[in-house]
Amino acid sequence: MLTKQDLLDCHKRIAPFVHNTPVLTSRLIHEKVNAQVFFKCENFQRAGAYKIRGATNAILQLSEEQKKSGVVTHSSGNFAQALSLAAQNVGVAAHIVMPNTAPEVKKIAVREYGGKIYECEPTVEARQSLADDIAARTGATFVHPSNDNKVILGQGTAALELLENLPDLDFIFCPVGGGGLIAGSALSVKYFTHNCKVYGAEPFEADDAYRSLQSGAIESNETTNTIADGLKTMLGDKNFPIILELVSGIVRITEDEIVAAMKLVWERMKIIIEPSSAVTVAAVLKCSKAQPGVFQNKKIGIIISGGNVDLSKLPF
C-alpha cells in the first residue's frame, strides 16, 4: 500500500508545476441534495484536467537516461494532453497513442503541448499494442494513464488539497475510468480523514468498475458507447486492490443523466465541465433523489475531473 508520506512527498514534488484549484459551491445544488456540496474544480487545472498531477509526478521521477528517450502513453485525451505538457515542461519527448475517435479538440491540444500523436482503433488492445511498439522502437518509457503508482499518487493530490480545506467531509465522489483518480483519492481519504467515504461514478455503458467491485476481480467493458469519453478505459492491477479495499461503492449513470448534470452545471454554476465530470455530479443527484435525506446535514466533496469539451459537439 502506498503510504501517507508518499502522498505528501508527491504533493510537494509537483506543487511548482500544477495549480491548487479552487473549490466552488452552488446554493441550488445544495438545496437539490439537501447537503453542502463542494466542487474541487480540476477543470481549472493546467491542461484542463487533474491528470497533469499524475503525469508530472511520473515525469519528474525519470532518470536522466530515460529522459533522453522520452515517454509514451495511450489516452483518449486528458492524459494525452497532461503527459505532453508535463514532458514539455522538462524538455522530454512525448509519444501519444490516441484512438481515432478521440475529440479533435483534445488532439489539437496534444500537438500544441508538443506531443506526437499516433492514431489507432478505439480498443484497449489496439492502444496498448501500438504503445508497446513505439516503446520498443524509440526506447521511450511507458507511462500508464492510471495503472501506475506514481500516477495514482499524483491524482490523489486533488483530494488531498480538498481535504486540507475541508477535513470534515463525509463523502467524496469521483468519476471512474482507468481507476487512477479514485484510487489516489481513496488513499488521501484513508490517511487524512477519519470517517469520510469514497464513492465512484461511471456510465452504465462502461460499468466495468461497478462489476469489478461486485465480483472482486477486474472485469472488462462490454460496451463503451458513452458520451463520457474519458471513462472508457479499464481498471488495472495496481489501482484495483486499492479501490477494492477503500471504495464504498460505485453509482451507475445513464447517458441522459450525464447530459442533464452537465447542462445543470454549465447553466447554474457558469463553469465548463466535460461529460466525465458530469457523471459524478449526476451520481450525487441520483442518490439524493433515490434516497431522500441520505445526505441530510452532510458535507460532500465532488472531484470535477476536467473541462476539455469539443464545443462543436455539445450534447445540448
Question: Which sequence of strands runs across the widest sheet?
Answer: 1-2-10-7-8-9
- Percent range for β-strand residues: 15-25%
What is the H/E string? HEHEHHEHEHEHEHEHEHHEHHE
Largest sheet: 6 strands, mixed
What is the CATH topology classification name of the largest domain? Answer: Rossmann fold
DSSP summary, beta strand count: 10
Discrete helix count: 13
Q: How many angstroms separate the termini?
A: 43 Å
Shape call? globular
List the keywords.
316 residues, alpha/beta, Rossmann fold, 4-stranded parallel β-sheet, 13 helices, 46% helix
Question: Could you walk me through the main structural features you see in this protein, from its secondary elements to its overall organization?
Answer:
The chain is 46% helix and 16% strand. It has 316 residues and is of the alpha/beta class. It has 2 domains: 4-49 and 148-313, Rossmann fold, CATH 3.40.50.1100; 52-142, Rossmann fold. The strands form 2 sheets. A 6-stranded mixed sheet has the order 1-2-10-7-8-9, with helices on both faces. A 4-stranded parallel sheet has the order 5-4-3-6, sandwiched between helices. Helix 6 (104-112) links the parallel strand 4 (94-99) and strand 5 (116-120). Helix 5 packs parallel to helix 6 (104-112) and helix 8 (149-165) crosses helix 9 (180-192). The longest helix has 17 residues, at 149-165. It is globular, with a radius of gyration of 18 Å. The model has no long low-confidence stretch (mean pLDDT 95).
